[in-house]
Amino acid sequence: LPVGEYDVTLYGTSVRKNTLDKETLPIFPTHVSDGHPTLGGTLIVSQVPLLMGGSASRGASVPVAYVKISNPGTKAAAITGFRLSENGTVSEKDAVIGFSTSDDKGASRTTTYTTFQSGYALVPLTATIEPGTFRIFTIKALLSSSGTFYGKKLQIDVAGIGSTADVKGTLPLKGTTFNFVY
Questions:
Q1: Nearest 5 degrees, angle CA 5-CA 118-CA 66?
Q2: How far apart are the first and last CA of the chain?
Q3: Is residue 29 reached through a cis peptide bond, with omega within 30 degrees of 0 on the bond before it?
Q4: Tens of pLDDT along 150-160?
């Protein structure tokens, strides 16, 4: 499939073709071409432990991870996004309605209304890390403005990095914990 997001509907095998589930399927790029830097190389992923967590309120955007990605190599390396996992006590499918990401250079930003599927969410973000440099990415969860989640915990970890480079580092990167106050 071409890169993008697709609405997918899963039907049952009965004659009535009942709808079993509807979800969004993100397809990440597997390579970068058309004038972009050569792919490959090595990226080192680490956590920036600056977040404290706290309280999560209705409709908020809460920072769940700071991720440092370094390129110690001699050629540029590309990333295509982040794979996140939810390990708290909240029903993440209802509480989290999407994600936003940005980097410390202001060059790479995305907002997506991708939700968790089987405990994981794929958040697309296309960025190139030049040789000998690093970037720090902020990942925020966009919370629902409806529902009741009082007393539940939101704990999102970075489970993986989409890249054609060799990714090194200890994954998952533990995210912060937010307590719902609504």
A1: 75
A2: 39
A3: no
A4: 999 999 999 99
